[in-house]
Amino acid sequence: MKMRAVVIDKTVVKTNLAVIRERAGFVRLMADLSANGQGMGLMNAAGICAEDGVNDFAVTEMRDAAALREAGFTDSSILMLRSVTETEELKELMALNVIFTVGSYDASIALNSLAEGRGAPAEAMIRIDTGFGQYGFQSEETDKILNVYQRMKGIAVTGLYTRIAPMKNAKLAKAQADEFIACVTKLQEQGIDTGLLMALDPAAQKRWDFGERSCMCFGPAMIGRAPNGGKELTRTGYIEASLEEIDWAAKGKNAGHDLNRKMGRTEQTARLDVGWYNGVGLSGERQRTSVFRCQADPVIKVGGRKAAILGGIDATSIVLDVSRCECSPGSVAVIDADPRLVKGLPIVIRQS
Questions:
Q1: Which of 174, 283, 284, 329 is the most buried (most CB within 10 A)?
Q2: How far is it, in rounded angstroms, from Cα 335 to Cα 278?
Q3: Domain stops at, among 192, 223, 254
């Protein structure tokens, strides 16, 4: 039977969750299920997290919030990580009982107006931008933030959050945390109960000392692919694909998909019907590059032995050198791949 799928090892995910929980201590945990549940599939990721006692989620798409509610996560807190201003989307999100993100004055006005009109306050968290230039009030805009707390009766603010840089840049991460704490302190000095304080910490690297009412929102760390996540986190996610035709490529002939490369000697070759379109050779950890191409070819193994890529990686196929591999048509190649970037393939959850 032909095999083409992205595979996630559930045991590895569980081990990573245990590391995250240990790092967090007694801090509340929230799982960021963006990017199709970090590439695991939304419901797969939610189910694994729930088994581990994590029932609060963050999403970026309304359809994901709807799917979670329909799947029975009716009591879970679901934070919408985007700051929404469009009226119809706000209405639908209200019906799903999400926690809104308020990251601008315009967003607060839109949400407050709609909530006051329906006669029931909308729960929201205020996002503070401490340097990423994404969503969020600037940390020095305390007057605008105070206005949300004090004057917008349709918004029930239950917390504040920011995004912290990966711990690879420890100096920047600390500066961002300090800036966030300074903003919170100014609000508290004005008599504001700031509620839950949370960092979107992509490395899930440490517990930020925000006090007792703290929360850690983790995402890529579940699959061990957080920037500088540490040696304790283990990567999971790989593509399995059956070998198609096996043939011989003679010395001097073109190698794979690169017309500028010739075979140095006669080698046995095999074709895989997956390519960069499916996520082979792409990396979410490299930014602002052509389709996120890696500098090095991904590790591909056939029968437990490495098989080199001949030529380049095409959109939907690869040619391998399998001269040193015990294989035949239908044998399965295992390809390292970031599941967040895989598309066009089914997701298989296995337990080692």
A1: 283
A2: 11
A3: 223
